[in-house]
Amino acid sequence: MDTFSAMTDEELVVSYACGNNAAFDVLLERYKQSLYTYILFTVRHNGLAEDIFQDTFIKAITTIKQGRYTETGRFKAWLMRIAHNLMIDYFRQKKNENTISNDDYDLDLWNSSSLGEDTVEVELVRTEVLSDVKKLVACLPDAQREVLEMRYYKDLSFKEIADRTGVSINTALGRMRYAILNMRRMAEENKMIFTLD
What we know:
By secondary structure, this protein is mainly α. The chain folds into 2 domains: 1-97, RNA polymerase sigma factor, region 2, helix turn helix motif (Rna Polymerase Sigma Factor, Chain: A); 119-197, Orthogonal Bundle (Arc Repressor Mutant, subunit A). Helices cover 72% and strands 0% of the residues. It has helices spanning 2-5, 9-17, 21-43, 46-65, 75-98, 120-139, 142-153, 158-165, 169-189. Helix 2 crosses helix 3 (21-43), helix 4 packs across helix 5 and helix 4 (46-65) crosses helix 9 (169-189). The model has no long low-confidence stretch (mean pLDDT 82).
């Protein structure tokens, strides 16, 4: 670990991209406090700050592993920008949820087919998609399935997942990432399509 501590951010990113998970642990340790403080200062809610913090690192992990990281020499700024964009998305969504007015539209918003019940076809597709997703989840290794179910079905934060499973947050994040990658791979191999439209 001491070897990694002396490495630059860029060297750590390259090492992590090559499969050395300990390199990412150093990056996480290096920036977790300043990143979390920045997010908490902006959103002013512990639970929301934790979620955005975790989502920031999931996005960073995914981008690096997919070979799409290009911010040479600016890892911390790149992380902050990811968090900033996630916060903007959150606040936009909240604003949209709270500002719908029927007066803003020529159409009657409350007399819309989108608010009615779905057609039989849409309901059948939804049922089939959910069934396929459950099959994929069932095929995951136990550790990955456990983290995925806790995150998406029980809505637990990665800190809560780490506490309950007795692993580090980074391990929980890694298991989630591998679960999603494995599900994506299995879906492609089985030519599954997950759309409801």
